[in-house]
Design brief:
By secondary structure, the protein is an alpha+beta fold. Helix content is about 45%, strand content about 10%. It is built from 18 helices and 12 strands. About 45% of the residues are buried. The protein binds protoporphyrin IX containing FE. Protoporphyrin IX containing FE (HEM) binds near residues 145, 432 and 529. It comes from Trametes cubensis.
């Protein structure tokens, strides 16, 4: 009996131990793989109601404040993770870039996509999947826009800067249009070798149409088919199948964007009947021919390849030039909702919503490839009018280094750290893409004990709202970066425009976190146009500051008007509303320099 009760006791205790072990390990496993915290989800639609279609980065910032720097959301079954700090973005998008570098899928990968509106954009690098085609495209883009190569574009960019200064001195009130024209003309010249100031081309209008089509298509949740893919099977003639009708009209607009300047460039190459290599040497000797452009360089390279690589490389070349021409704009509207309802346009019978940076009466078409550069330059004008002491210090540095006998140049960068600091501060103070560009994970992952499933969309939110005292204390206690560009430990008084924060002993201080590392994105998908953008921003900013005074506009009694910059409320942030400021050439010498350069 005793033997029985002992063995029974042992048996029961072993079973109990096993049960406890099983329960404990299940709970631990559950804890280990639990999803990050986030707002409660409703059946089927999940967090669709928490996911804003306007003021996106501001509202998502509210979620990060409430749930922490890794927030889980699910919209119609699609997992999404919102990253609220630079630390988290670095940990995942930079250090684990190999699994965080995909982009959300395009519709054309799904069945029956004959005429769905997103078709036509499959060439655009910002939208490509993380795979071999993207890798090849990225390599080609890098070959055309890396720090070593971009110096070749400097002569045409310098010319564009000088023309911009002349326009600004002649008609300073139209400064937003001059900025747009400057950026578009220099990028089109770099990409295709076409001078839009001298040749009449439809390129700007084509890009405007294509971008309007893009903006109208890539609005999250606009078409029910996105959430109910089964609708793809409904024939186009069926009432209410708007996405197919829209797609039929928009796809040719997008094709024009890639084909028209490319075809013209090809025709020019053929008509000149001069081998590309010969033409380049003629140009370098100043004996005529087209200036070097991305297209001529890539065609020359492709001409030395064998099929089928040759055809593929030409395809990539075409996409690369178009990405420079329109890519930055694509980046901007990809998950943008900044299309105001009153900006409605009718295009070829289809109602499409156009995106404009400001609601002025400009006759200039909205230009391609300009979004981030445009916004950053608008920030410069706003900051200079608001912070006269910064402008004065910039003038002092430029007078000491460049002097009154010449205009600044790209090569002056190392000797002008304060101007470089102004550029960094513009990129930080009004970050242009606060939500970066959405990524998608390619593998299951675990981060800080949370499970992040494969296929999750990753959204970094570098929104620039300042921290409350309580939030700041929480950051200090947890030792995490908060709000990326607004972290007071890296950027004391973050709301202040203070370029000197980047300087130490008259040089750029390497110990201050570089805001450009945030503004241009993370890891393998970080902006490949960064060096190009930084160089051109420096050169144009130095030239503006060297030759102009910028101050608040005056009222009729000659009193300074309060400066107000209305920010667009979408994903991509810019000082989109026009603001008034007084822009005047600094001196007779500056005027003479501008005139002499043109
Ligand atoms: C102030 C200027 C600019 C800023 C702040 C900026 C910022 C960005 C950001 C945040 C991304 C997304 C990176 C990510 O996924 O983490 C991006 C991607 C990209 N940018 Fe820029 N950009 C600028 C100018 C340019 C210019 C001038 C070009 C072209 C010459 C360019 C071409 C691209 C391309 C092609 C991508 C997609 C890269 C990929 O998906 O692999 N950007 N940019």
């Amino acid at each position: 009996m005793e033997l029985f009760s002992l063995s029974g006791f042992l048996l029961v205790s072993s079973v109990c131990a096993l049960v406890v072990y099983f329960v404990k390990s299940t709970v631990r496993r559950h804890q280990e793989v639990s999803l990050p915290p986030g707002p409660p989800r409703l059946p089927i639609i999940g967090n669709a109601l928490d996911f804003p279609s306007r003021n996106m980065s501001k509202i998502l910032k509210g979620l990060s404040d409430k749930y922490g720097d890794v927030v889980y959301l699910e919209v119609f079954g699609q997992p999404m993770v919102l990253l609220g700090t630079h630390d988290a973005a670095m940990d995942l998008m930079e250090k684990r870039s190999y699994k965080y570098s995909d982009r959300p899928p395009l519709d054309h990968e799904l069945p029956l996509n004959e005429c769905w509106g997103r078709a036509g954009w499959d060439w655009a690098m910002p939208l490509l999947h993380y795979g071999s085609w993207w890798r090849r495209s990225r390599r080609v883009f890098h070959d055309c826009f890396n720090a070593g190569v971009i110096t070749r574009y400097r002569p045409v960019q310098t010319e564009a800067i000088h023309r911009f200064l002349l326009r600004l001195s002649t008609d300073p009130t139209a400064f937003p249009e001059h900025i747009k024209h400057f950026i578009a003309s220099s990028i089109i010249r770099v990409a295709y070798g076409v001078d839009i100031d001298k040749e009449r081309t439809p390129y700007l209008a084509i890009a405007t149409d294509a971008m309007a089509a893009f903006a109208a298509t890539f609005v999250p949740g606009k078409y029910l088919v996105e959430t109910l893919p089964i609708l793809r099977f409904i024939p186009g003639w069926f009432p209410g199948v708007q996405f197919k009708k829209d797609g039929k009209v928009r796809t040719p607009l997008v094709q024009k964007l890639t084909d028209t300047p490319w075809d013209a460039c090809m025709a020019a190459i053929v008509s000149r009947l001069v081998p590309l290599s010969r033409r380049r040497s003629l140009v370098s000797r100043g004996e005529g021919g087209a200036p070097p452009s991305v297209v001529t360089d890539l065609m020359e390279r492709a001409s030395q390849l064998e099929e089928p690589t040759k055809t593929e490389e030409i395809q990539i070349a075409k996409a690369t030039a178009a990405a420079a021409y329109a890519g930055t704009r694509v980046v901007r509207v990809y998950h943008s909702d900044m299309i105001a309802d009153d900006d409605l346009n009718h295009h070829k019978g289809v109602r499409i919503r156009c995106e404009f940076y400001h609601s002025d009466t400009s006759e200039l078409p909205d230009t391609p490839g300009t979004a981030q550069l445009y916004s950053t330059l608008m920030t410069l004008f706003f900051a200079m009018a608001s912070y006269p002491q910064v402008l004065e210090r910039a003038h002092r540095e430029l007078d000491a280094v460049v002097g009154s006998s010449r205009l600044p140049d790209f090569d002056d960068a190392p000797a002008l750290p304060y101007i470089t600091a102004i550029m960094k501060e513009c990129l930080r103070w009004r970050i242009v893409l606060p939500l970066g560009l959405m990524r998608r994970t390619t593998e299951d992952d675990e981060y800080r004990g949370y499970y992040i499933p494969k296929g999750t969309f990753i959204i970094p939110n570098a929104w620039w709202v300042s921290l409350s005292l309580a939030q700041l204390l929480a950051c200090l206690i947890q030792n995490v970066d908060r709000a990326f560009t607004r972290d007071p430990r890296h950027y004391p008084n973050p709301e202040e425009f203070k370029p000197e924060r980047y300087l130490k002993d008259g040089m750029i201080d390497p110990d201050v976190q570089d805001p450009n590392d945030i503004a241009f994105g993370y890891g393998r998908r970080a902006c490949p146009g960064r060096e190009f953008a930084e160089a051109v921003l420096f050169a144009v900013m130095a030239s503006i500051l060297h030759t102009f005074r910028i101050s608040p506009a005056l009222d009729e009694r000659g009193m300074p008007l309060p400066l107000e910059s209305k920010m667009s409320d979408g994903v991509a942030l810019s000082i989109s509303e026009p603001f008034k400021c007084t822009i005047a050439v600094r001196s007779a010498e500056a005027e003479a320099l501008i005139n002499a350069a043109n």
